[in-house]
Structures
1.
Amino acid sequence: MTDTRAVERSTVLRVATDPTADRETAYETARSTADAVPVVRTGPTGIDAVEPLVLATVDGRTAFHPDPDRSTVADVVAALEDGDLLPDDATAVVEHDPETRSLPAPERGPLSVGRRDVLGPCGWVNPLVPEDYDLVSTDRDAGGVADAGLLGRGRGDAAANEDVGETWATVRETDGDPIVVVNANDADDRQRVDRTLLAAAPIAVLDGLASIAEHVGAEDAVLFVDETDPDLHRHLTAAIDAAADVLPVVPQLVAGPDEYRAGAPTAALEALEGNDRIEPRRQPPSPAVHGLYGRPTAIHSVRTVLQVRRLLTDETDGASTADETGRDPGTRLFTVTGDVASPATVELGPEDALGAAREAVDLEGSFKMACVGGVLGGLTESLDVPATADALTAADLGTEGAIELLNDQRCAVATAGERARFAAAENSGRCVPGREGTKQLTELLRAVYDDSLESDAIRELGRVMSRTSNCRIGARAPRPVLTAMDAFEPEFRAHTDGRCPSGTCTENL
């Protein structure tokens, strides 16, 4: 028996998996086996290692069966038909409110890591059924959290690490027809947070978008995604169609180029306008003043939109998740990737250290370092850093939502060099610090293999680039290099003597 709704059912079998991936064996087996029990395919949980995850629920008790074989699925369905669970075959059995709209996390295992506030619907609700969501935009707009001090999250957000309420105020005060853009076009495989949220809870994203649009007075909205993901496009189109009669503002889905630079906020606007050359705009004016086609534009990431929605549904107005300064309520989501068996998406509160995210994955080899903040994040030996914007910035780590765990087979010099070359290839070329500075940075790192470590020159170049580059790529390109030098200076000096301590460098950069 198949059904559409997953929430508010006393007995139901959920199969949590990415609906855009070709991993439906468990769902097909359950659907063909069940007679009287509803079988609902929900979205990904964020933990790749446990999926497909079969969740059997009876009267407020849910049994977790990660990646089961066909016979196990059939046994779970048979037991559920009799009103029973199979606790001996489950990795966990969790008691919860029968009407919960959030996945009840077990006490142990990768799903227990961090919080499930924004991630709550992921793996638990039907991604395409509005009734499975507690919609907020139908009753209230984002004005209720405009003064909360929420900071934008992610590389694609024009208000990244800035107060989104101030952005909305500018949009509201600027002449012209406002528009809201959700920028979900990120070509960096390290960044899986936004895609996970779109696959698992697309109607929640549309709901948060609509609440922002209502607040700034926008009748138009755009959801901007990568053109190379047609399965996700079909999934999002189905979600938009399902919610079109419910939400006050419904976005247009637009696909953009699969280029790293196109993920930057103003470059995304250039792509949306159909310009051949994708490059960031000079600011000021900000997109809030002169954005898409010159209109005042609020351009946010998926995770920012869902933080807004979460705060609107939180009776404490986020006070329990504000940082130590009392601002930036909410949580932070990270993709944990790198030298791991399977990547994971975790949600950490301000009281959590980044190191907690390691519990969600199996590291292959011994831990050596992490790159925090995406391809141009900071390299560090320690993850004892709180998951807040201020703490990440103070530690010279990125806030873009990626924790890349790297094992002892990695070379710090080669890792820094790879990222410098990436910046040299991917920058827009619009400004001299970005265009020429990234080339010079790469050459200075190549010189390390030729017995020359010009530390002062590298640091001065990094200082100039970070302060004067027009684009974020140029400004952030020095970060992996400088943080690697700070943490692994002996390794850099060893390379000038022709020796790679990790034994991985066989040729020059």
2.
Amino acid sequence: MRNEATVLHADLDAFYASVEQRDAPELRGRPVIVGGGVVLAASYEAKARGVRTAMGGRQAREVCPDAVVVPPRMDAYVEASRAVFGIFRDTTPLVEGLSIDEAFLEVGGLRRLVGSPELIAARLRERVRTEVGLPISVGVARTKFLAKVASAVSKPDGLLVVDPDGEEDFLLPLPVERLWGVGPVTAEELHRLGIRTVGQLAELEASSAERLLGRAAGAHLHALARLRDPRPVVTTARRGSIGSQRALGSRPRSMTELDVMLIQIVDRLARRLRDRGRGCRTVVLRLRFGDFSRATRSRSLRLPTDRTAVLLAAARGLLVAARSEIESRGITLIGLSFAQLARGEEVPEELPIDWGDGARIDTVFDAVRDRFGADALARATHLGRDPGWSAPQLPEHE
């Protein structure tokens, strides 16, 4: 077990909104909402007024009528993310990306060359601010879990180091919602049992936590509450999947709306496959229902492919199969992943190649979008839609 605080959790603050404020000086200091129909991101000025991610656009404008609402610009966010991750990897080779705007960094081997973890974190924050123009919060701790909690507590635009000797004093008084894996449903159950702080959960025996919360969840959360998290920072040369997801808010969604969103996600992910010379063997649909429970559905293809039409057909089949659950329980998030990725040479040629199989359409669309931008061409089903539909919310980082 590590005895020194050498793990950094770096998390960009209100990422999408911060990019908008960076690029439009007139938005700085003002409440900014990214996304129209659903709030994809909110500046801290908007959050202070009660605006939250995944809130419906109408509700957000009611609680913050003077907010500036801007459409998402996914290309700008991806470009900013790449610049920030470049700084991460320039800081240490041990970088584990969690999403487009956050990562773990292990800096334990850099003390003699660069300085203490706290000094490294401070320099990283300064570089992101100076070179990319964005605020970032960093937590430094002995474990990944504690580093992530520390960065959240330090927000916005902060740096917090949790000394190994002060871990209990830092963690135990915090609300149980700070534990990695405690969502609204689990928090409500813990509150019903009279458990509101991490310390109260830590006081339980492990067997009691497992009985109350289920074996896997109870064991995991109890271990975190007892400061046990042996997971190292893991970096891989090549991801085995790519994906995106969209928060939908709480209002009912028709299957037609969900189909349009699915088309958008498939279009973007299929293009990313082709850009990287990859093919996909397994399509995975991820759903979060109105009661905050989650479901995952997958379909494996006979051969790996990068063709949009084939991948869309598989994704649509999974969505249709989940229709009864969606209609009875509601839906608040839809996501899609392409897993079991294959290299380009493993993707077989599809013959005969004609307009019916979509190969030429994919090639033409990619070329036009490369030259004139991602929004240069759009499907007819997207015309007239809310601007917030133009991009999935949280693409996984590669």
3.
Amino acid sequence: MTLLRSSVRALRRVVIAAGAALLALALFTPPASSVVPEPATPCATEPATDPLRYVIVFDEGTAERQARREITKECGTPIEYYPRIAVAVATSAAPDFGQRIGLDRAFSAQAARRANLGNGGRQQQRPARDGHETTDRSGEQWDMRMINAHRARQAGIRGDRDVVVGVLDSGVDASHPDLADAVDPRLSANCLTGTPDTRPRAWRPTASPHGTHVAGVIAAADDGIGTTGVAPGTTLASIKVIGEHGYADPESAVCGYMWAARHDMRITNSSYFIDPWSLPCTNREGLDVAREAIGRAIDHATKRGTTHVAAATNDAANLTPAVGAEAGCEALPASIRPVITVSATGEDRLKSGYSSYGLGVISVAAPGGSGDRCVLSTAPGGYRELCGTSMAAPHVSGVLALIAAEHPDASPERLRQRLTANTQPLPCPDDYDLTGDGTQDAYCTGYRAYNGFYGHGMVDAVAALGLSDVSTDSRN
């Protein structure tokens, strides 16, 4: 009994000591709220406002998990992340999302358009008639004769199915008879949201004939019906980056170039400019972000073996890079190296009045048309004549496709060299008074072999392919 009582007393002492310890812990431990970090600022949203889309540039090497976590923390929803270039696409209904992430890293073309309605965007193209003929219309293609594409075909040169040209545009009509065998649905995608959508109805054209016209210049079939492209037999990928209202946003272009790189496309054709700017001739908010994001995508694709072609735009602007503190005009992607940027000429070989230009930016020239003499090519339901640098660029993409078919192992730099070293030189005009009012409409700088109007000169399919034994008469 003595042993039992002693054990009970000892147990009581243990219980009392434990209770005292718990009481002390309760009295002297700070409340939990005083040791937890302050909650993040609530995510504010604007009533009845759809989320806006942003392109976001992270430090190179940023892991996808880290990027997505930061976007979510700052009230955004990650849509796509391209780890190889550390560029993300996200949406957010928070009006201060850009400030949260940092305006030096994030940009929304949608927000910029909403703040400045009516500024920027639509490709300038001359309305023209549709054609539904089933006859051979190659005789109307003065543009093909100007670059000697017809001579290359006469020499037996054709495109190659293994050479893929990504047409970054408004969608390509794969049901058109001249393009049905060219467009590869497996390589086509809609990039409007910044992430690829491969459903056929997503990448096909809806409101615009633009992409189908560009595609026809490159690779319309040589079948004796309608028109014939520069490189018939080449494979085309329809990569939709121009939306219903004619806008091409930075995230769409990034997605397009990354898609082309992913599928090892040899060439991309970009007959558009990035919105919301018509043409930024001064610093614009978000321009640096857009340039960085698109530049990274282009560089990545170039390293993967893709050569890029872009239209110079139809703003008649001088794109010569600014020196020092001077303000200059800039067009994306036309002003980004290593893009091959193309100016447009009319049938008279004179720079078209609408065509932008600039020493150090323009690589080569090609026919884009002027006045009532435009470029005939494919369009949904038939054929159409359009003028623009948009039409000039695909002539160059077509010639590059022919070179790539003949030189399958050539690097982008090698393709570029072969193209630019074998052109028809075009000197600066002595007089560029298009309106006849006694005032020069633009000033050409440089010399015969390389200048701001024509770069290295008019692209030439025969010369670029080294077909010295083929007679040429590019003026016919």
